[in-house]
Write a structure and sequence with these properties.
Number of helices: 21
Order of helices and strands: HHHHHHHHHHHHHHHHHHHHH
Strand content: under 5%
Largest sheet: none
Radius of gyration: 22 Å
Shape: elongated
Low-confidence stretches: none
Oligomer: single chain
Number of strands: 0
Structural class: mainly alpha
């Protein structure tokens, strides 16, 4: 148990030797009964998940679930079910992930365990596989419970799930609040390894969506450096996806498309991450006026999400496809915007005020007002509400 805890802390703190310590723990016989969720075998499965080896993690977790259920340890059973749910989700097996998450949530509620851990897993799985509204309920319940219990670990995790869901549903301002608190909590807990809770690309994407480009770039540079130093190469493709979105926000669509294509290739073994990257590629190609490439990427993403039963993402991809088809059949209704008009429109669609837009673009408020007037005239719109549904990305 001591070696297992040492290996856990070494990984969290980014210290060398975590795997060697864990191997020592695994080599020792279990001469006394241990809670299954405190064994080195469970930690090894968690590390495999962090390193994007979900099949390896699943193989290790299934016998641990049998053991936890046999001993009747509710807390250990919930932890193993949660690990299995997150593992199956990582592998794109959404139906299995839902099954394990539902079992963990039901057992938690039945035995009066703290709901914060199960809520975190339920929020992640529900938000990817079935319903984002229910996922948000789980995340907010987890946040509230963790605050009441002063549980910083699962406060951080539930806030991450909340921020991810808010970003995915087009609310970057609210997502920023949650994800910035995650960053602060992780710093307080001295979590140095970026593979454990992958909030970094989510926060960078949120910052980019809101026009805070320099902050997003600084976060990406720091995280990329840390991941490389620690050998956490699986963290890099999602960072490249966020970097590409930052490139697109600066108007460099060619570089953004290249980055996203390369990141998608590296993420083929993780179908949902692959699909999410293809969807980002579709948005980028659309903004670069390459509608055929945008439709191809969106269709591939829709096919992936549908095949893996990721319903909310499949709906998002289908909506993207329908907008592309509508645009291709009525180009006259969507005249081309200049790069300045496009950037101004995107910031307004994201919910930024005219003063915020002026600060971001380093122009006067009057210039912003004049630019938006031209945008409304070109697109035949009359309000920001309409703008939010006509401009990609359509964010609050």
């Amino acid at each position: 148990m001591a070696l297992t805890m040492q290996a856990r802390l070494q990984r969290v703190l980014g210290r060398p030797g975590a795997e060697t310590t864990l191997e020592r723990a695994l080599s020792l016989p279990r001469t006394a009964p241990l809670p299954v969720n405190a064994t080195p075998q469970h930690l090894a499965a968690r590390h495999a998940l962090f390193d994007d080896h979900p099949d390896e993690a699943r193989t290790a977790l299934l016998p641990l679930l049998v053991e936890a259920e046999r001993t009747g340890d509710a807390e250990a059973t919930v932890d193993i079910l949660r690990s299995l749910a997150e593992t199956e989700l990582r592998a794109g097996r959404c139906a299995r992930a839902l099954h394990h998450a539902h079992r963990a949530q039901a057992l938690t509620d039945r035995t009066a365990l703290s709901p914060a851990p199960a809520c975190y897993t339920s929020a992640l799985v529900e938000g990817t596989a079935r319903r984002t509204d229910l996922a948000l309920v789980h995340a907010r319940r987890g946040v509230d419970t963790a605050r009441q219990e002063d549980n910083k670990i699962f406060l951080s995790r539930n806030l991450f799930a909340l921020g991810h869901l808010l970003l995915a549903t087009g609310r970057p301002k609210k997502a920023l609040e949650a994800l910035e608190e995650v960053r602060a909590l992780e710093e307080v807990q001295q979590v140095h390894d970026p593979s454990i809770l992958r909030w970094h690309p989510e926060l960078a994407e949120t910052l980019a969506a809101l026009g805070h480009l320099d902050q997003a770039q600084g976060l990406l540079d720091d995280t990329r450096r840390t991941a490389t130093d620690l050998g956490r190469h699986t963290v890099l493709p999602p960072l490249e996806r966020a970097q590409a979105l930052l490139d697109a926000a600066r108007g460099d669509y060619d570089t953004a498309a290249r980055r996203l294509t390369e990141a998608a290739d590296h993420l083929r073994h993780l179908p949902l991450e692959h699909g999410r990257t293809l969807l980002a590629l579709s948005h980028t190609e659309r903004r670069g006026r390459r509608r055929a490439s945008a439709r191809t990427a969106a269709q591939s993403a829709a096919d992936l999400f549908t095949a893996h039963q990721a319903q909310p993402w499949a709906e998002t991809a289908a909506h993207t496809l329908s907008r592309l088809e509508a645009a291709s059949t009525d180009n006259s209704a969507h005249p081309r915007l200049t790069s300045a008009e496009q950037r101004c429109a995107e910031l307004a669609a994201a919910g930024a005020s005219n003063r915020d837009i002026a600060t971001t673009l380093t122009v006067s408020v009057k210039t912003v007002e004049a630019t938006l007037t031209r945008v409304y005239r070109k697109l035949g719109l009359h309000s920001r509400f309409q703008l939010a549904h006509a401009v990609t990305p359509a964010r609050e």
